[in-house]
Amino acid sequence: MNNKKVLIVCPYSAGSCGVFNRALLDAQALKELGYQVMIFSSNAIKGSKGEAKKEEIIGGIVIKRFPYVKLGGESFMYWDYKKEAITYAPDYIFVHNYRHLHTTQALKIKKLLNKKCFVILITHAPFIEKNETRSWLSSCTVDFYDSVIGPKTINRFDAIVAICNWEKDYLNKLGADINKTYCVPNAVPNEFFIEPFSPTINKSILFLGRVAPIKNILFILDLARIMSDYNFSIVGPVEEDYLYNLSLKHPRFPENVTLYPGIYDLQKKIKAYDVHKFFILPSLREAMPQALIEAMSRGKICICSDTFGAREVITNKDNGFICNTIQEAKDIILKQEVNPLEKNQIISNVQFNYSIDNIKQAYAKIFEDLNKNDK
Length: 375
Hints:
Blueprint: E1 5-9, H1 18-32, E2 36-42, E3 55-58, E4 61-66, E5 69-72, E6 76-78, H2 82-88, E7 92-96, H3 101-112, E8 118-122, H4 136-153, E9 159-162, H5 168-174, E10 181-183, H6 191-194, E11 201-208, H7 217-226, E12 231-235, H8 242-249, E13 257-260, H9 266-275, E14 276-281, H10 290-297, E15 301-305, H11 308-313, E16 321-323, H12 326-338, H13 343-353, H14 356-373
């Protein structure tokens, strides 16, 4: 291990959170590169009003959590980690999520440190065309930020990391310096490629993720109604009141749909993918869907709604399927029963594009560029 320290800052480190999954993968990759790594986050639990414990160790990574004040929206909050960050004295600060207060706080911390420190922003593609899934107030707030605050702050970060290629156009519109903008996609932990396969159950379809409005769970329930001889598993933590609202639209849940709690153990999650033949992700919006690349790494036949995130990962009819309607999804499933995609091809594609080695190589290059340009 070298003596260089990395601080990773993200809004959540408890509950089902794609941003934290990425932050933890970053931490593991950087640790394998020999860096000392720590994660700071709020003590909020994603999708819940509960609070996580103050400190935890996951995969050998120390996570410290701080009390927060909710300011609006799902993830917009304030929490102060300045004192602890200065004590830790990192050489690099990775901040996850553009448009969040904890990211700009890192820029202030950089000025207060008595040493050279680089601040790297991982944006997480928070760009929604025409703000279609946002409320009027959220849309106004986002538009104001992107027209006034974003252009003034984006290039104060030493490096800007997009998690998908499609968001580069949005970053360009903000005026992000192309010379310090990189694309480093999400990755799949190595265990997904080396764990032995469990037997697959026929006529089984899995959704794994947050059970929340943005995931369009209603699509799955409607599909289950017209495919009564298939078993559907919905696996993930339920956002407060969402299940109740779903039950109002579906007074009687289809009998072939089973709800399961979230799975956080890696081996159990891999087995959940393995035992299902199909994976479905009918979200209204996806940036760079972690569950999708995980499912593909286990050779699952994946069916997704037409989102930027799905198009980033899937070449339609080649390594998965993109559809717009319930009938399309049904037709795809029935045809795949007769003539399925090549499993090994799906797996090798994910291993080539989304392994943790890719993250390690990308960050090693970013660090090299930062230190070279600083001389």
